Amino acid sequence: MSTLPVMPIGPVQMTDIRDEHKCGCFRICASYKSPAKVRGFDRFPFFAAELFGRDPDYWNYHLIVQLKGCPFRCIYCYVDDAGIRGHDEVNLEIGDLVRGAKQIMDRDDRLHVFHLMGGAPALHIQKWAEVARTMSAGGMSDVIFHSDIVLVEPSIIPDFVPSLQKLATYPNHLIAICIKGVTEANFRENVRTDAFSLAECLENLHDIVRTGIKYYITLINPDTSALPSFLNHLTDLLGWENAQRIQLLRVRPYNVTRQRLLELDASDSVLALMDHRFAAAEQIVDRFTRHRHISSCPTSCGDWGRWKTSDQKENRHAAQIDSAETARCSEYWR
Ligand code: SF4
Q1: How many CA atoms lie within 13 A of 252 on its CB side?
Q2: To test ligand 1's pocket by mutation, which of 13, 42, 70, 78 has the most ligand atoms within 8 angstroms of CB?
Q3: What are the residue ranges of CATH 3.20.20.70 in the chain?
Q4: Is 258 left (phi over 0), alpha (psi -120 to 50) or beta?
Q5: Fewest 10 Å CB contacts: which of 28, 69, 246, 269?
Q6: Is the CB–ligand 1 distance for residue 77 below 6 Å?
Q7: What percentage of the chain exceeds 90 in pLDDT?
Q8: Nearest Cα residue to atom 1 of ligand 1
Q9: pLDDT single digits (tens) 201-242
Q10: Of the CATH numbers 3.20.20.70, 3.40.50.1860, 3.40.190.10, 1.10.150.130, which one belongs to the domain with range 3-296?
Q11: Cα separation of 2 and 278, whole Å?
């Protein structure tokens, strides 16, 4: 059986994690702290609820292992550099990794998602289907396999697409595809390397979505002046139904990020700037999704309704949209 290089949590990241959420090579993390406070957090639980049923709360907590390696050096990364590029990896057999995960999940009824995180976990794409298969055979077939793609991996791993196609045959998976910028300059500003380009990432995105995997898109620290045209481009690339599963993430002031800023002689004002950008980008994404609804759905409120259902769950945890909300949709674009 093959192995995966699991990285123990680094020393600074350790200070960002509550004691009860650390367990050896594993850690436990909630996507949101409370259903009423989800602004800028990962909406994984809402996307999972749409795809797999149940309430978003059911999918909120993840059991995470962090894998070695990442080609980027994002300023806002919340993993220690040592946790990505250090030498402390533990090469775990996939069977042992999955058995260890199951033992923890059996003891904690909040956990229904197993998250291979990075670094860039898709550098180990050839092992993803094996992990999913082992989960399925080991009594975890109702657990979601979750991982992340940062879009440069197909340029590094020759058989990336066929490997991802194998995962697509495993029903319980949901993958976050991370877009690191909306212009070439914005991309380089975020990932701090010239080794890759945004154009290359978008080409890879095209190939990735054609594998049939279940996915949603995340975006962080976008240049707001180019964001509207980028969102239109994304819609042309993915189609409306898929482009609307976009999640704007807010940069969090974790100790790891502050420490990195100190080492770079930057200050907390960088964090404030990114937060300011987030607020502006949030309005653009919200407006865009409503505009696109009207373009694609001139006679009924069905598309907007589905999008709005997520917002409602976030704000009020309601399952249905009511007719007043639907009427407001029509008024907004009259
Ligand atoms: S891609 Fe993710 S893991 Fe890699 S440096 Fe950026 S934030 Fe960190």
Answers
A1: 16
A2: 70
A3: 3-296
A4: alpha
A5: 269
A6: yes
A7: 65
A8: 72
A9: 999 999 999 999 999 999 999 999 999 999 999 999 999 889
A10: 3.20.20.70
A11: 41
